[in-house]
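Check out one such.
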Amino acid sequence: MTAHRVLAPVAGRPGLVGGALRPATPGDAAAIHALITKYQEAGRLLPRTVDEIARHADRFLVISDGGPESTDVLGCAELAPLSATVAEVRSLVVDESARGLGFGRLLAETLADEARLAGFRSICAFTHDASLFVRLGYSLVPHAWLPEKIAHDCAGCALFRACGQHAVRLELAEGWGSRA
């Protein structure tokens, strides 16, 4: 991941003094796991292990509070390759203390930019709430339109064909990007 951006202080939000969008490191695995687990228990995310997160830390972006070296993770998302042409946004979550600040949008847009730069032709996500992705130009599609995802994760899942998640996909046209 190449993204690295210092975020402005957040006026009127006690405890949020700004932060950084940056690539995750294996040292962030426990904080990312804690954030994912918090919302997984609420039925919003699929479970992940600390070891799995640490192993794939280079695929995660985090928003940390307090600067580029901070280990307080306010948000995270992973760009996981499913094939040579398709990548998936996984584990996109922003802590409720930092919601409404555009961090989810920033993570999703940055991952789409990273996917385009890496040569992927499309990016997808499976989500319980598709509204953010639809606002970003993703299309709701039948699960069957994402055979890479089904083969990679869904076929072995206990909730296969009954998960309640929406499949969304964004075609990454040449030159596409949210920030010029």
About this structure: The beta strands are 5-7, 19-23, 60-65, 73-81, 86-94, 122-127, 139-141, 166-171.
